[in-house]
Amino acid sequence: MSDRSLGPAGFHSNFQVDKNSRHDLAGGSRIAGAETQTKSAKSTAMMEEDDVGQPPASDIVSSEGDEPTGEELATLRKVADHLPWSAFIVALVELCERFTYYGLSGPFQNYIQYHPHDTPVRGGIGLGQTGATGLTNFFTFWCYGTPILGAIISDQFIGKYKTILYSAFVYVIGVIILFVTSLPSAIEHGAAFGGLITAMVKSLPPGSP
Hints:
Elements lengths: L7 H7 L6 E3 L5 E3 H20 L5 H4 L9 H6 L9 H21 L2 H6 L14 H31 L1 H22 L2 H5 L3 H11 L7
Antiparallel strand pairs: 1-2
Helix pairs in contact: 5-8, 7-8, 8-10
């Protein structure tokens, strides 16, 4: 009989025990390090297979992190949000501005063209048709030109909400000046024309119409 079947010495001489090896019942050996590498390779392959057909992370999460992506808009449930009170305030201010604009621009021609004691149409200043048409056209020009100034102030300096807020105060001041200087006593003292020009400038704040 050979030394291979006799004793522990013969057994250990042919089967050296290594820290990196494992033995099964059949007498075969597997290297643990190689097995670990094989499992890692399989896991990586499975992850790659799972990622096939999926959009990259840059498409799932937007660069800013605030705006939804195209995939989110298509798949997420639409939930209505609550409007802040500032939105209603802005809408109310714009409603008042439009009401004031059309309420003033209508009688301007007669108010500027005729004198207070003219018949059958009474006015307030008496500049004639030419002067009334010129000031009315200036009023329209100023009305549609001030949004450019309002946009510059809003975008470059104080923001849109503060621009609307401050402009509303200026607007109210202009309307008050026009009202006071159009009273009969103010017209008799010659304050109507100056009050009209001041009101035209002040009652159309940046950003109106």
